[in-house]
Amino acid sequence: MRIFLEQFLNGLTIGSFYALVALGYSMVYGVMKLINFAHGDLFALGSYLGYTVLVIGAGWITQVLGVWGGVAVALTAAMLGIGIAGLVVERIAYRPVYKAGRLPLVVSALGMSIFISNGIMAIWGPRFQAYPPDAIPSAILSFGDIKITVIKLVTLIVSLGLMALIYWMVEKTLFGAAVRATALDRDTATLMGIDFRKIILFVFFVGPALGAMAGVFAGLNYGRIIFNLGWTYGLKAFTATILGGIGNIPGAMIGGLLLGVMESLFEGFVSGAWKSVFVFLVLIAILIVRPTGLIGEKVAEKV
Amino acid sequence: MADVTRKVTQRILNSQKSRKMPVKIAPVQLVLLAAVIVLLIAFPFFPFVNNYWIDVGFFVGIYVLLGLSLNIVLGEVGLFDLGHAAFYAIGAYTTGILYVKLHVPILALLPISAIVAGGFAYLVTSPIIHLRGDYLCIVTIGIGEIVRITALNNPFGLTNGPNGVTGIGNPDLGLFAIRTPTHFYYYIWVIIALVIIGLLNLQKSRVGRAWNFIREDEIAAEANGIDVRSYKLLAFVLGAALAGIAGNIYASKMMVISPDNFTFMESCLLFCIVLLGGLGSIPGNMLGAAAIVIFPEIFRQFASYKLLFFGAALVVMMIFRPGGIWPRRREGVGFRGLGISGLPKDENEFLLKIPKEAVLVPHGADPAQSTTVKAEVAQEKTINNIVLETQNVTMQFGGLVAVNHFDLKIREGKITSLIGPNGAGKTTLFNVITGIYRPTTGKVIFMGKDITGLKPHTIIAKGIARTFQNIRLFPSLTCIENVMSGPHCHAHSGTWSSILRLPVQKKEERKILEIASYRLNQVGLWEYRNELAKNLPYGKQRLLEIARALATSPKLLVLDEPSSGLNDKETEELMEFLKSLITEGFTLLLIEHDMNVVMGISDWVTVMDMGSKIAEGPPSEIYNNPRVIEAYLGKEE
Known about the structure:
The complex is a heterodimer. Chain A is mainly α. Chain A has a single domain (2-289), classed as ABC transporter involved in vitamin B12 uptake, BtuC (Orthogonal Bundle). Chain A has helices at residues 2-32, 39-57, 60-94, 102-124, 150-172, 174-184, 186-191, 196-222, 229-244, 249-269, 275-289; strands spanning 129-130, 140-143, 146-149, 224-225. In chain A, the strands form 2 sheets. Chain A has a two-stranded antiparallel ribbon with strand order 1-4. Chain A has a two-stranded antiparallel ribbon with strand order 2-3. In chain A, a hairpin with a 2-residue loop joins β2 (140-143) and β3 (146-149). Chain A is globular. Chain A starts with a helix and ends in a 14-residue tail after the last helix. By secondary structure, chain B is an alpha/beta fold. Helices cover 54% and strands 10% of the residues of chain B. Chain B contains 25 helices and 12 strands. In chain B, the strands form 3 sheets. In chain B, strands 8-9-10-5-11-12 form a 6-stranded mixed β-sheet, sandwiched between helices. In chain B, strands 4-3-6-7 form a 4-stranded antiparallel β-sheet, with helices on one face. Chain B has a two-stranded antiparallel sheet with strand order 1-2. In chain B, β6 (441-446) and β7 (449-450) form a beta hairpin. The relative contact order of chain B is 0.11. Mean pLDDT of chain B is 87; it is low at 1-23 and 362-383. Chains A and B meet through α4, α9 and α11 of A and α6, α11 and α13 of B.
């Protein structure tokens, strides 16, 4: 039971990373019908930005603001920086290709992904980088014989809170309605007076910013990061997006959390080496039964 | 009718005289081809070329082969396959394991690897082949990862985990072993040459066209008689088999293979090769592969930056040349682009020489014969000769009943119109008849046989062809290629006879072109034959869709709002044309909103409202029926 609970919590944590990254995939996909392969690498870049802030600021930010203040500064910087990076990627790699159709867009996204991950390697080097230990909050809570680091708890609470916020924004506000309308039919939405550029700004800023947050939290939780982090996490997050139903905000969250928990439990009770195989098999099985994901809407093409 | 056709032909021929004919194969292209071949043969002997560069030439070859294999799936059929390295891995591991454990000769493993990879593709893709776009994409990624991780985990001690399989031998021909870089260079390029010849033949055949139809519009392809599922599976199996061959050659060259050779990144590279070259373009593919291999070599001195440049180059390429380096050109190439042998140089001459018996018409009616007799004969038979009948058909979507216990009878040689207000369920009924939907309850009987729930491509082969309310053509194919989808369902030549260009296949291809040309000319679009369908004006696109449906030689032609979007003159011409089809032996069912058309040409009108039949009868009766007027205009207060 203890192992179960621990693995479950681990799964929720990693699942919340997947979910945050998946949100970015799903938002961009909803609006542009593009799988933003560079998104996973933006997540990694966010992690590195946070790392740099903590390394540089470990001396004084942490001293002035305390460990948690340092974490907050790193998170904010990474989210802002990566949000802007997301906009830049859209401007240089996607907007000029948008008219050419979906396949060139995919290649452009792959190119951007390769560019960013190798850019990270060129700047920070090909080896693992360790988050400075004294910048990571080290408090541990224990409930009976279950121990949980405070940073893990904070990660979970902040991630879930942010997801709730995004959910509220997209599902309950007027602006969210505009985003959803654009996702359904861009032309009609534009004719109704929705400014497509604002929607683009929103999804390409908020999506990567959420990814960056996940990136910093991943670094804080696991302690070390590597340049191709974006490929592994990106792939899992993309899987989560499809699992939930792509283009669907709650779907991305549920898909991410579910994937993380499944993976963790399988790792804890069956085998770590085969966990990805298990995850993909589950995904395929689900898609055979529900071809558009768990809560993806059934899109019947009008004939 | 025959006179009309002849007049039209004549008119077009006259107008054609001034139009320039499609260019013949330019000598420049032949010279270019010869130059490439000479260059490839002579490459190892160039002074600056050492073993290192010969190996680069070999690896370009491997990626050409892989690119060609993915091109079948992604380029020809348009399926997002981002896990193609899986099939490459299966080929390589089959070779490696069987050689090391059972000492099967490498060359014998070449076909075996192809078969194992193809079989694997069949097994894993058949449950998921119906998934659309990005969902298929993630599943292929998943397959790629599953294969790689499985190899990494060393199941049953077969794959030797991360270290991979070592000690794989070189191909041995008995007297002669392929060992040096130069040997391998020629070995792979000879195989590529053979593969390219086969693929070119396949591309320009019934199979290749079917793939392209699916890529352009899956639903229209299925509705025009293409067995979408089988052709998609065929593409995956062939693509995987080719990748398996590449795997075998790679393994025998490197003598060691490990999971690192078959990562997701590898699949992405293959994806980029196909798009860099141009979808469905074989020369483009070769250039794409060359670019992918040689580009990092050129930047080798920058070591860790080479992939950085590579990523940026991909983005820049897609910005400035989204169609690829060498896209496949279709428009303006003329019929010689179709790859059908023995055609006269002058396409008009070909049209005029089409033997009348080549064009299948229901009941073997001769379109060239005088019409009056036929019409009378048809009249007599229609009394109880029912072509199509829907019995008690209900179609429910969730709680919405779109079609409610509907009975419809279509009599032979008549024009039946189905009318009703918007949302009455007319198109849904059409979709039930043509097999796109399976009715919730009820039966569809065609020519006395139950066709309920059959797939659209089977139904069309039985003789029901349709057009769509929102035109669904194959936009990036030429008009003649569009119409050539029609005869597909009655033809038989498959993969091997197409690759080998057997005489039967050649004859069949010619016949397909004859039927398509005849029908294209019949609707008056002959002069547009080599234009892309998407470039036609709206009215002409409608006609093209009708030509495509006619080319399936149907018994019953089902037209969904054929006159919508046409101007008065075009509508008038359409009415004349539809009437002429009756004399040719076709039976027509229309959905139509234009009352002039309905009243002008229908023999029988059925009125639908809220999914139910509210009236039927000859047009004059319907015109005054109070219930019909009520359905259209509302109740009089």
